[in-house]
Specification:
- With 198 residues, the protein is α+β, with helices and mostly antiparallel strands.
- The chain has 6 helices and 8 strands, in the order αααβαβββββααββ.
- It has helices spanning 9-12, 21-41, 43-49, 60-68, 134-144, 148-153; strands at residues 53-59, 76-83, 95-99, 107-108, 111-115, 118-126, 158-162, 170-172.
- The strands form 2 sheets. A 6-stranded mixed β-sheet has the order 3-6-2-1-7-8.
- β4 and β5 form a beta hairpin.
- The two termini are 21 Å apart.
Length: 198
Amino acid sequence: MTLTQPGGVGARTRSFEGIADGDLRRLAILAQMDQEQFFAQHPRWRRQYGDRLIAVVLTQTAAAHYVDGTTGIKDFGVWSFYREHPDAPYPNRRKRVMPFGDPRFGRCLERPEFEGRPVDLVGRSIAGALMEDPAAAIRRYLQTDPSPVARRLRAHPVVMLEPGTRRGEVIWPAGQPRGASAGTGPDDGEGRARWRKP
């Protein structure tokens, strides 16, 4: 784990530990836990969005670090995209922060109570057809949505966490090769990082 590298204060607050396949799986589990708890607390949103998940993705600088291994990780941005319900959009302002829980990534100086970096869990509803390819729906959103949120997201790579069969696929920019840093974390002998259930 490297917490200090040249490049100014921003670099010194980041972890430069590689993100392995097991780390992506752990992030997907945290997103699933958050979804289940949210829908259990809010039956209305379960009725509207419980079966409309398109994909869960890793975004922003953590996704960039997965691809290039040099950006560094301040926190993990995990976004769940849902097929928009005609009656109401998903509550976009909702955000939950959970600890990643693996000390390999150190602690964020701004959130020292979180072991292994904070995980920002965010949801958004977007246009999408039933059975549409998840990557195609998300790329269309990034390419066409004029909102500041979409502009921020498209400034960095986007990496698939769910569906699990496509975990680790870099879906934005289109044609981006799989992360150079993938698989560089501690390994359990089968190409996956060791992890413990959150």
